[in-house]
Structure formats: structure tokens, C-alpha cells
Specification:
- Pfam families: ACC_epsilon.
- This is Acyl-CoA carboxylase subunit epsilon.
- GO terms for molecular function: acetyl-CoA carboxylase activity; propionyl-CoA carboxylase activity.
- The longest helix has 21 residues.
- By secondary structure, the protein is an all-alpha fold.
- Helix content is 32%, strand content 0%.
Length: 65
């Protein structure tokens, strides 16, 4: 992990402490990252559903104001 100090003059101990804190936060975030349950509801090729049919005349008698 590379840390660049842009302002101030930290000591080696302060940089080491900051590096440890950031490494711990990164490890904790990586440990809690799990793939969520996939919700395939509404997908066009969902099991049990037929393929969508294109019907240009389906709403031909609808009047728009």
C-alpha cells in the first residue's frame, strides 16, 4: 500500500500506524464482501417464461389525448 503525504510532516511511527489502520479497514471490507443472491425475476429468458413476442398491433385501438 502506497501512501503519499501531501501536507504536514508525519513521523515514521505515524505513517506506520496509518498504514496499519488502512490495511485493517481494507481487510475487513474484503472479508464482508460476499456475492449477493441473484434475483432473476423479470429477465426475458427466465425459466418457465416464453420469449417475448413483438406485436405492433397490440395497442392499435388506444386513443391518446
Amino acid at each position: 500500500m502506497d501512501i503519499k503525504v501531501v501536507k504536514g510532516n508525519p513521523t515514521e511511527d505515524e505513517i506506520a500506524a496509518l498504514t496499519m489502520v488502512l490495511a485493517d479497514l481494507q481487510a475487513a471490507a474484503a472479508a464482508t464482501r460476499t456475492p449477493g443472491e441473484r434475483n432473476l425475476w423479470g429477465t426475458p429468458n427466465a425459466p418457465g417464461h416464453s420469449a417475448p413476442i413483438f406485436n405492433p398491433g397490440a395497442f392499435s385501438n388506444v386513443t391518446y389525448f
